[in-house]
Design a protein that fits this description.
2 strands, 8 helices
Length: about 180
């Protein structure tokens, strides 16, 4: 950027990208908590791309549904998207661990702006949402639990910000001792 001259003083300007500073909580001072954080970073790296794809697919489907007027057409579009999603993502999502699945539910809530329970209820009905909530409860999760970026999901929110600014890979490589040549 060009310098600014004010009263015979020259001020040089420099534009820097935003920097996010995260204080390391005192809870991460022991080995157990660092192990949990490393696991969170690993799981985040696995599931966040799926959450972004869920947002993209949801936006596409909602745009298509907004143009339809009859319930029959809406149901046909929803069924088509459901079949496409199952065909594309069933195998990789079945390979996720329970903790990765829980994290994915939180990240979908963050990206879509609604809990998974609400999305299922709006698209497939209350009975279907109740069924899937029962399955989630059986495995120790909840489709109704909202994303809390200031509370228990604070660490996840920090990872999302790092991902959005392009610094997540650096953190991941540092935590897991991967060099750039190993990543290729």
């Amino acid at each position: 950027m060009p310098p600014i001259v004010e009263n015979s003083d020259t001020l040089y300007q420099l534009s820097l990208p935003p920097v996010f500073i995260f204080a390391t909580p005192k809870t991460k001072t022991n080995a157990k908590n660092w192990k949990e954080y490393r696991r969170l970073v690993y799981n985040f790296q696995k599931v966040y791309p799926y959450a972004l794809l869920a947002k993209q697919k949801t936006d596409m489907m909602e745009a298509e549904l907004a143009q339809l007027s009859s319930k029959k057409e809406r149901d046909a579009v929803i069924d088509r998207y459901e079949k496409e999603l199952f065909a594309e993502f069933e195998k990789p999502l079945r390979k996720l661990t329970f903790s990765q699945g829980k994290l994915l539910l939180k990240l979908i809530d963050r990206e879509v702006g609604q809990t998974s329970y609400y999305v299922i209820k709006e698209l497939k009905g209350g009975v279907t949402a109740f069924f899937w909530q029962g399955i989630a409860k059986f495995f120790g999760a909840s489709l109704k639990k909202p994303y809390d970026k200031y509370g228990e999901d604070r660490d996840v929110e920090q990872l999302v910000k790092l991902y959005q600014e392009g610094s997540f890979d650096w953190l991941y490589f540092q935590l897991f001792g991967i060099t750039v040549s190993d990543a290729r």
